[in-house]
Amino acid sequence: MKPFYFFSLTVLFIAACSTNAITGRKQLQLFPESSLQQQAVGEYRTFLQQNKVVAAGNSNAAMVKRVGGRLSSAIKTYYASRQKPVELNNYQWEFNLVEDKQINAWCMPGGKVVVYTGLLSVTQNETALAVVLAHEITHALAQHGNERMSQVSIAQGLQVAGNAFTQGNTQVNSIFNNVYGPGASIAVLLPNSRKQELEADRFGLIFTAMAGYDPREAVPFWERMEKTSKGNEPPQFLSSHPSDANRIAEIKRYMPAALKYYKRK
Ligand SMILES: [Zn+2]
Description:
Distance between the termini: 63 Å
Helix content: 40-55%
Bound molecules: zinc ion
Strand content: 5-15%
Structural class: mainly alpha
């Protein structure tokens, strides 16, 4: 039985590898992205019901929506210029600010974004908020969550076929929550990898610039974030987006390429 099992896994690996539309990197993708997007809609609705969404009339909530609108339209332009507009077909963008002192923000598959009010004390200005959101959105576009879910599923010996969510696969649901875990009070168990972080920084800077925000704000923003991490309560954001001393150096290295896209609005 064993050799057969190995063979079927190999076939699965080949079938489940896909090349990402923006990064060009081959990734393990066991889950149809469409089923993750569907699952995300439900999780997002539940999260918004269980948390205090800041009303649209509030100036910070309006800022979150404004940044989101500019970024999503820049991303649409970017994909169209690469003849890949179809990749965004199922994106139904939503940007909400939630009253919570956590320093955090996330974007689930399909463009469901939440910013916590606590993050605004670190971003301090609209441009830095654009830097963070572009980073978050890039994780979703680059299907990093799908990749992490796939790696964990393989490690746990899970057989995944079709839409595991509608089949009520509780193990898959639990992996989803550990990767995206919007409402989870538990520590995030499956942080982004270093490679995923660099991709989110690199393309995030391009989208920031295309949306008319100065990508150079990424440097002081990350300096502020790192300073915050030295406090008593490290930001939630850093547990899912591990950072180290090289990050800012890499961001500076990506900057000339990003600045080519920058036109002040
Ligand atoms: Zn990240």
